[in-house]
């Protein structure tokens, strides 16, 4: 049996939308590109044809990837969780003990991670270092940029995307 892939409902929906877009928009466009390139004649020296065929392989690989991930999905709704321990789906308020900087991240699946939206992949060094830790704990996490000393200031669970501040109704 394949390994389960944790993702939020949002991540599952985004992956479904990506798959749908590839199948309904990108793949038909690629088929059209192949036919157009074929109409230009000699395929052995036709760069447009070679590019379109390579793109076809890429699209089919993306389809297989999305279908595999969706089939192995373990959808976890953060809003249904609670507690003071960091787990998948938690939104975590952290303080960097070396810089006094504070920041908020939500721990999500690999396919939905996006640092600009404060969505941290469960497989990232920081998320792995935070898992199973509780409010008030200090952790030292090895990252590609070196060691970081972090303190967990708060943990909460919501289906909303993390913002710059903790929502007022969460305590």
Commentary on this structure:
- The model has no long low-confidence stretch (mean pLDDT 91).
- Strand 3 (91-96) and strand 4 form a beta hairpin.
- The protein is an alpha/beta fold and 171 residues long.
- Helices cover 36% and strands 23% of the residues.
- The chain has helices spanning 9-38, 47-71, 125-130; strands at 5-7, 73-75, 91-96, 102-108, 119-121, 138-143, 146-156.
- It folds into 2 domains: 5-75, Orthogonal Bundle (Helix Hairpins); 78-156, Transcription elongation factor, GreA/GreB, C-terminal domain (Chitinase A, domain 3, Roll).
Give the tags.
single chain; alpha/beta; 2 domains; 171 residues; Helix Hairpins; 7 strands; 3 helices; Chitinase A, domain 3; five-stranded mixed beta sheet; elongated; two-stranded parallel sheet
Question: What is the topology?
Answer:
Elements: E1 5-7, H1 9-38, H2 47-71, E2 73-75, E3 91-96, E4 102-108, E5 119-121, H3 125-130, E6 138-143, E7 146-156
Parallel strand pairs: 1-2, 4-5
Antiparallel strand pairs: 3-4, 3-7, 6-7
Helix pairs in contact: 1-2
Indicate how many domains the architecture comprises.
2
Largest sheet features: 5 strands, mixed
Q: Structural class, from helix and strand content?
A: alpha/beta
Share in β-strands: 15-25%
Give the CATH level 1 class of the largest domain.
Alpha Beta
Give helix and strand order, one letter per element, not per position. Answer: EHHEEEEHEE
Count the E strands: 7
Report Rg.
21 Å
CATH superfamily of the largest domain: Transcription elongation factor, GreA/GreB, C-terminal domain
Quote the distance from N terminus to C terminus: 39 Å
Order of neighbouring strands in the sheet with most strands: 5-4-3-7-6
Number of helices: 3
| Backbone shape | elongated
Please give the CATH architecture of the largest domain. Roll
Catalogue the unreliable spans. none
What percentage of residues falls in helices of 4 or more residues? 25-40%
The name CATH uses for the topology of the largest domain is Chitinase A, domain 3
């Amino acid at each position: 049996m394949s390994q389960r892939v944790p993702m939020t409902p949002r991540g599952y929906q985004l992956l479904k939308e990506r798959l749908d877009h590839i199948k309904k928009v990108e793949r038909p466009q690629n088929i059209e590109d192949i036919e157009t390139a074929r109409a230009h004649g000699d395929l052995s020296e036709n760069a447009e044809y070679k590019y379109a065929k390579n793109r076809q392989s890429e699209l089919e690989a993306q389809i297989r990837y999305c279908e595999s991930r969706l089939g192995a999905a373990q959808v976890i709704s953060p809003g249904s969780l609670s507690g003071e321990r960091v787990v998948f789906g938690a939104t975590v308020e952290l303080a960097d003990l070396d810089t006094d900087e504070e920041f908020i991240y939500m721990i999500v699946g690999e396919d939905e991670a996006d640092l600009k939206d404060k969505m941290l992949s469960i497989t990232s060094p920081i998320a792995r270092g935070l898992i199973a830790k509780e409010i008030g704990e200090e952790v030292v996490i090895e990252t590609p940029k070196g060691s970081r000393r972090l303190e967990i200031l708060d943990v909460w669970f919501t289906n909303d995307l993390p913002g710059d501040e903790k929502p007022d109704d969460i305590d």
